[in-house]
Amino acid sequence: MNDTEVKSEILQFITDNSGQFYEVGLQLNFTQLPASHLRMILKELEAENKITSNGGRSPFRVVKA
After folding, report:
1. pLDDT of 44
2. In degrees rounded to 5, what are phi and psi of residue 62?
């Protein structure tokens, strides 16, 4: 699975769960990724304005367009 597919799956996971999961919840569901790689993908999604983490103090949420 390439990064584009993983990024899409993570975005879908966050969307499906209405932003209820913190990074640890993502790690439980994406165990095939090292934590550092998961953080990198999450930062990319934030940079693309697809998700927001509210400074890391709340669950990741999908940015509403």
Report:
1. 93
2. -75, 135
- pLDDT by residue (tens digit) across 20-48? 766 677 878 888 888 889 889 988 998 99
In terms of residue numbers, what domain contains 53?
Answer: 3-62
Q: For the chain, how far is it from start to end, CA to CA, in angstroms?
A: 28
Name the DSSP class of 32.
Answer: T
CATH of the domain at 35: 1.10.10
Mean pLDDT of 14-19: 80
Closest CA to 61 of 21, 27, 31, 9: 21
Exposure on the CB side of residue 50, measured as CA atoms within 13 A: 15
